[in-house]
Amino acid sequence: MSGLQPNARSRRIEESATLAISATAARLKSEGKDVVSLGAGEPDFPVPAPIADAGVRAIQQGNYRYTPAPGVPELRAAGAAWLQQAFGLSYAKDEVMVCAGAKAALHMALDAIVEPGDRVLILAPYWVSYPALVTMSDGVPAVVPAVPEQGFVHTPEQIAAAIAQHGAKGIVLNFPNNPSGTVPTRAQLQAIVDVCLRHGLWIVSDEIYATLLYDDATHVSPAALPGARDHTIVVNGFTKSHTLTGWRTSFLAGPRAVVDAACRIQSQVLGNPCTISQAATLAACEVPVPGEHEKRMRAFHERRAFLLDRVNRIPGMKLAPPRGAFYALIDVRDFCRERGIDDVVFCERLLARHLLAAVPGSAFAIPGFVRLSYAASMDSLRKAADRLAAFAEAK
Q1: The dihedral of CA 26, 305, 387, 360: what is its sign?
Q2: pLDDT reading at 395 higher than 80
Q3: Fewest Cβ atoms nearer than 10 Å: which of 11, 77, 285, 324?
Q4: Cα–Cα distance between 123 and 159 in angstroms, integer?
């Protein structure tokens, strides 16, 4: 073999499963097929007008040049104020930085704190990018198996056992959880945080779905709990709540020394987050749109209720009510056992035979489940439910 070859670390990085499925669905659509794609978590609502207008004004006013690497000072200050107002988190503006989306923020955070070979706990089910992000930071992901029988909330004893088993130095938490929609109670989260602090773990907390909640669920950040602020890095923003997915902005907040290190890394990796997107995000901080949020949540409630009704009528499939985010994590273990298939084959056949794109639970370290996003129109969800039922009826 001659010529340059990718290194060993790059060979350990797999393509995002959700993006790969979306790409396959897009290819089938380009061939003229009526595909319903519920793979990616991207709301179907437009960006709220005041926020989109702020981005347009930035272009019209020539506000599109380089900014400081961690974002413009007024946005860092506005992000700190938003975190205080929305979640009770107290940060100075230089303890908050702007990143190019939640994924970039997680990358900067992990790059700043992971030492080579550090074991980092990742609770299953997890967002598909966490293991790759830890690996890219020279850490070693250590997956803690999912506990569906406990509503996907691990006990402190289970986490303590994983810490001892792996010699873990840190943990990635994600509540509300993608893909399960799990939102622990304050007491449950306190128990998890307490065991992490007793063992000296740092915590990276991905809270990008924090404002998307159902029923009696309440979001609590680990950084808001006693003793945890100085051990926690928070990632949050408006990506999911305001459909700023393609605008690529987010906030990273944490101890000043860690944020300073992440800023230095970002200056070399990225330069600065998109200037135009920063203008839009500043508007999101300063111009609340409660009516828009209420409209979206009414729609998500309706879609969630629809799927809970339809899916739980299909033999071999079960759906527990998600308490946050906008994903339906369907238990298809009985169905798969009956058919002699796994969740990957389930999703392959569902797409090939019924033109419905879903993500296999194996991508989230929970085989025997599949994830549908209900950040889609009711028309799409009705088609999806019909196709899922038809798939179950076909032999």
Answers
A1: positive
A2: no
A3: 11
A4: 9
Structure tokens given for 364? 């989230």
Cα–Cα nearest to 210, from 111, 90, 102: 102
Residue 141 to residue 128: CA distance in whole angstroms: 12
Average pLDDT over residues 303-326: 98
Taking only the tens place, the pLDDT of each residue in 135-179 is: 999 999 999 999 999 999 999 999 999 999 999 999 999 999 999
User: Which of 225, 250, 254 lies closest to 109, judged by CA?
Assistant: 254
Query: Residue holding tokens 């007491």?
Result: 187
- Please name the helix (run of DSSP H) or strand (run of DSSP E) that holds residue 85, with its range, or none: helix 73-87
pLDDT given at position 172 = 98
When the pLDDT of each residue in the chain is averaged and rounded to a whole number, the result is 95
Q: Closest by alpha carbon to 384, among 209, 375, 23?
A: 375
Helix intervals (H) in 199-255: none
Tokens standing for residue 379: 């028309």
- Reported in sequence order, the residue ranges of 145-183 that DSSP labels E, i.e. its strands, are 170-174
Beta bridge partners of 141: 120
Tokens of 279: 């203008």
311, 229 contact by CB (below 8 A): no
Residue among 137, 111, 105 at smallest CA distance from 252: 105
- Sign of the torsion formed by the C-alpha atoms of 98, 102, 104 and 109: positive
- Give the tokens for residue 165: 């088993």
* 249-254 mean pLDDT: 98
Report residue 2's pLDDT band, with 50, 70 and 90 as the boundaries.
Answer: low
State yes or no: cis peptide before 176, omega within 30 of 0: yes
Q: What 3-state class would DSSP assign to 202?
A: strand
